[in-house]
Amino acid sequence: MLKAAWTKIKQVLIFLSIVVIGLVFLLPLVWIVMSSFKTRVQNFALPPLVIFKPTLDNYIGLFKLQNPAFMGDFRNSFIIAVISTAISLVLASLTAYGFSRYEVKGGGCLFGWILSLRFFPVVAMAIPMYVLFRMVGLLDTHVALILVYCIFNISFAIWFLKGFFDEIPPSLEEAARLDGYSPFEVFYKVCLPLVRPGIITAAIFCLIQSVNEFLIALSLTARVAETAPVALAKLQTAVGPDWGKMCAASTVLMLPVLIFTILVRNELIRGMSFGRLK
Amino acid sequence: MGTVELERLTLYYGKVLAVDDLSLRIEDKELCVLLGPTGCGKTSTLRMIAGLETPYAGKVFLDGKVINSLYPGDRDVAMVFQDYALYPHMTVSRQFAFPLKAKKISAQEIGQRVKEIADFLQVSDLLDRYPSELSAGQQQRVAMGRALIRKPKVFLMDEPLGQLDARMRVQMRASLKRMQRELGITTIYVTHDQVEAQSLGDKIVIMKLGVIQQVGTPEEIYNKPANLLVAGFIGMPSMNFLDCSLHREDGKLRLQNDHFGFILTPSLAQKVNNIPLQRALILGIRPEHIRLSPQDEPDAVSAEVYVVESHGNEYVVSLNLSDNVIKVRRDRKKLGFKPQVGQTVWAKFLQDRIHLFDKETEVCLV
User: Fold this and answer.
1) The complex's ipTM?
2) Taking the CA atoms of chain A, what radius of gyration do you get in angstroms?
3) Mind listing the pLDDT tens digit for each residue in A87-137?
4) Across the interface, which of B71, B77, B81 has its CB nearest the CB of A171?
């Protein structure tokens, strides 16, 4: 009797802790979204306002903004992130497949080296990158950022996708070979569909990483290819940061990836249940 | 036509020799079973025929043409894998259509063939299901359908019944045999289950450690095993083996060891003509060829009943013959009495069914 009661109490406690932790993580996000609908004055209120009269002034101001041209920068971020992610996934899926299926001499070392690119300190890269891109005349271009982001995205995606390819039983590919398909067709028609949840998850990670990246974007861009995080940092006025606009900008920046993730939510789940091979 | 010929095939896995100089001929429309314990090279041989492994040496012929250099998809060979290898992301109808799409066959014909094969294998109502929604038996039929839809010259099967429960296995055996007859397609079937091999095969090839031990019909393999391995592998329960040697006493030939002995009948005496006396031999006798009696009989061996197993209308009696355990299988009615554990009984070997093996070479002498 006591034991059953204790188990129940434990369950409730665990549930409460999860809720609390969840709230702690969500709180900053919720706060940012709320603040984006507050006026300047409301943002400085103490104690902080939870109930207030919302305004759309911040968003309207953001659209009209010329310096920095936020909407243009937002568009840049988006284009660069999508292109970089797309290129990375194509190259990484082929490479990950290669690592998974074929024995490469020194393959373990190669794979480790590729992975190490992912956690290379960006700070150390910033200045050499600037010099390099100035030499080839690619400063302040979309291409520059796409190339640099590919470094991180490809290395991450290769490491991430290899695990998914490892899960596919070799007999599936053998069956497809016997059915008359070439090795590339086997990859494209059998293996890729099976790692789809992996690819989508990797895509989400790559998009987030690319959209959020600040330092390289700051170093390599000026006006043409400036991205949203840089613009956000520039939202300083003579009297301090414009909190309302910053929060509005952050919210707008969050939206595309959030929407994308919600859209592919079903894909992810559906893909997972296919992946379970008997 | 679908004759397969294997000429001196050799395969290494790293440094391990998997298939050793193997030569074999499989006739058109034949159901040939490759049988043997795990690791004997039967699956490796099958994979070399399919083109999934490249032999270190030797040639594979299909209808007289060497196919070593052909890709698996170009060999006109189809295979059913042990784990079925069904594409998890495709419905049953797509699984069937998949191999045909590779050959650029028209959509109309694909549709027709899919329907035909689904009807033939009785999976027509499963066409929209995914593999994870099918039972093991259904998955197996789909795997076969995917292989057969290509109308291949040779049909390869790698332990396809391994994942099924015992009852399904027995059912599927019969339908497989019938199906193979109906389609008239050359089939090479790999298994480690000797009962399956005996019931299915037109020809059985027993292998061990990459070497063929014997090739023959199920009857030949059963009645005339070539060596100790084949004799012990075939038959359920397996053949009893006893060390013994030939002696001559009072002008009569006897087979004996320290614990028993009996005089040879004239027909058996004739067969052992070439065997030198005192040579170390192994006597092999199948459980169904031993007769038990509760009383002493001439030339019978006494033994103690150890275990009595009841199998349907038969008894399988394990006897303790001074440190050796031998099994006897007999119809209950014909046995006449129910052996009790601990009881002393007398066992008589049917002499025209005795096999003698040379202890050293393990070759069958009689």
Assistant:
1) 0.80
2) 24
3) 999 999 999 999 998 887 887 888 888 888 888 888 898 899 999 999 999
4) B81
Average pLDDT over residues A129-157: 92
| B189: CATH | 3.40.50.300
Nearest to B88 among A177, A185, A194 (CB): A194
Alpha-carbon span A170 to A186, nearest angstrom: 11
Tell whether B27 and B117 lie within a shared domain. yes
Torsion A234-A237-A240-A245 (CA) sign: negative
A175 and B132 within 8 Å at the Cβ level: the answer is: no
The Cα–Cα gap between B301 and B299 comes to 7
| Residues of chain B contacting A, Cβ within 8 Å | 50-52, 71-74, 77-79, 81-83, 85, 87-89, 98-99, 102-103, 130-132, 139, 146, 150
Same domain, B88 and B209: yes
Preferred mutation among B43, B74, B75, B87 to probe A, highest tally of A CBs within 10 A = B87
Q: What total of structural domains would you count in chain B?
A: 2
Q: What are phi and psi of B316, to 5 degrees?
A: -115, 110
Convert the pLDDT of each residue in B288-313 to its tens digit: 998 888 888 887 888 889 899 988 88
CA distance linking residue A207 with residue A201, whole number of Å: 10
Architecture of the domain defined by A57-275: Orthogonal Bundle (1.10)
Question: What is the residue range of B335's domain?
Answer: 240-358
Q: Is residue B364 in a domain?
A: no
What the block records as the tokens of A114 is 């590729």
Please state the pTM of the whole predicted model.
0.81
pLDDT bracket for residue B51 (50, 70, 90): very high
State the pLDDT confidence band at A277, using cuts at 50, 70 and 90: very low
Answer yes or no: do B265 and B292 share one domain.
yes
